[in-house]
Specification:
The chain is globular. A hairpin with a 2-residue loop joins strand 4 and strand 5 (about 55-60). The chain has a four-stranded antiparallel beta sheet with strand order 1-2-3-6. The chain has a two-stranded antiparallel ribbon with strand order 4-5. The termini are far apart. It is built from three helices and six strands; from the N terminus they run E-E-E-H-E-E-H-E-H. The relative contact order is 0.23. It is of the alpha+beta class.
C-alpha cells in the first residue's frame, strides 16, 4: 500500500502540494483532469482551493476526490517538478 496524504496545500496553476504519511512532499498536477467530466468543476479556482485532507486522500467541498494511490503514483517530488 502506498503512503496516504497527511497534508495538502493548493498551489497556483491547479497543482497540489502533498505531504504523505512517509514524510515525502510531492506535487500533483490536476490540470490533466480538468476536462474530464465532473472534474471540470475544479477549473473554478475558488472550488479548487477548498481542497482538504480526508481519510488519507484529498476531497473538495463538492465531494470530488482522488484515489490516494493515484495521488502518490502520479505525483512527483519537488526536485523532479523543476526539471
Amino acid at each position: 500500500m502506498n503512503p496516504r496524504v497527511a497534508k495538502v496545500v493548493p498551489l497556483e496553476n491547479h497543482t497540489l502540494e502533498l505531504l504523505f504519511t512517509d514524510d515525502q512532499t510531492r506535487l500533483f498536477d490536476v490540470k490533466p483532469y480538468l476536462d474530464k467530466g465532473i472534474f471540470s468543476e475544479l477549473q473554478n479556482i475558488t472550488i479548487f482551493n477548498t481542497v482538504k485532507v480526508f481519510n488519507g486522500t484529498v476531497i473538495w467541498e463538492n465531494e470530488l476526490d482522488f484515489c490516494p494511490d493515484t495521488l502518490f503514483l502520479e505525483s512527483v517530488t519537488q526536485e523532479l517538478a523543476h526539471v
